[in-house]
Structure prediction request, 215 residues.
Amino acid sequence: MDVLANRGIFISLEGIDGSGKTSLKERLQPHLESNYGLEVLGIREPGGNIISERIRALLLDVGNQGMTSRTEALLYAAARSQVVEAIICPALAAGKVVLADRYMDSTIAYQGYGRGLELDFLRQLNQLCTGGLKPDLTLLLDLSGKEARQRRKKDIPDRLEKEGLTFQEKVREGYLQLAREESERIKIIDAGQEPERVLSEALGYLDQLLALKRS
Prediction:
């Protein structure tokens, strides 16, 4: 843990629904703990504690179809604000690795490119709800909307997943644009590859980050 003595490491996983974020998170966490000897806190967004999980239930409930796009963005921001202050910042201060299934980039991709809300408004919202806290590394699992829909065909879709293929493709393009703008932080991984290859590429980026922290 010497490399994390002053501040932990914050890693986020992003991508459209069905891209494999949760599966990768479940494989990365034990690997980081056993092979690197790091203390890892895994969270999901929205969620991570009781208050944020209750907001998550509101956001994903298919019965809430009347929710406006701005209300949706504000609820995501509220859930994020709670988990940043109550969970993420204390974990990083303790030198832990925080591994998040979604974070601030989701707001730009989903509510910005997907819903069409003003990007400047959403960036200001992200700044307010995070206090400017950005991940050290973001792994973007890139997958086409058609492939993602095929993977999820047996799942019961939540409110966001029911938005359809056109919406998911807009979100995907939003993510890719973010990666072009912040290529140092956001690393694209082809999520259509075999899971072992996806994991290998993710670990390669983590190795680079840890080496940088040690330098």
